[in-house]
């Protein structure tokens, strides 16, 4: 690579992941399915290890086990009604543990730190293509099923009563989420991706009037977080993935402090008037 191009590819990756993750997060949060995204982000690990062991494309392996983990969690959630979160967290822990165990069992040479926390500066053109494919799948779902997704998020029971293909829509969301998580692995890793899925959405979810507006605003915030995190990491010689994760947390802390201050000022104003 030339002295100019070495940072262009990581920046493109950061911009794409910064848009795709928050838009996916907006769909998941409005449908109250964020915990499933956290599950998928951990369930891809066994597939990645198996894919590397058998010299298959890692995105295929991660996608398969991500979907398997999500489907297993759905099944166990129905079996343990009222304890769904416990079942999902158990599946999450089990798949993550299986992925770690498979590394020595299959004698796979894998950088677990890079998988878990990302290595954006090591991204290549294949990673960029994967992210573009995930973005295309997300765009197709959002455009073709926008009204159905809004209905499902607002009134799941009403959507089922109206004979919408609820199971198919949720499976499509699971598939797209798995694609997004695997494509974001290079940028922020399978552990930190949940921060980029949620933080930009939480910044705006209380002040928007439509799902479309939420997706656009969250994507803008995600762009700032991912690109800003990359540039800051390059300047400070720090790993970009963890720094982006810290920025996500810092952004929510700033919002929380600002919200508390505004509420306190409003209370004081009411007392004096």
UniProtKB/TrEMBL annotation:
UniProt keyword Transmembrane present: yes
Q: Name one GO biological process term.
A: response to zinc ion
Keyword Transport among record annotations: yes
* Topology term for the membrane: Multi-pass membrane protein
Q: Which UniProt keywords apply?
A: Membrane, Transmembrane, Transmembrane helix, Transport
The protein's location, in the record's own words, is: Cell membrane; Membrane
Please give one Pfam family short name. Answer: ABC-3
PANTHER family xref list:
ABC-TRANSPORTER METAL-BINDING PROTEIN, IRON TRANSPORT SYSTEM MEMBRANE PROTEIN HI_0360-RELATED
Q: What family is it from?
A: Belongs to the ABC-3 integral membrane protein family.
Q: What is this protein called?
A: Metal ABC transporter permease
**Originating species:** Aphanocapsa feldmannii 277cV
Which lineage do the record's taxonomy fields give for this organism?
A: Bacteria, Bacillati, Cyanobacteriota, Cyanophyceae, Oscillatoriophycideae
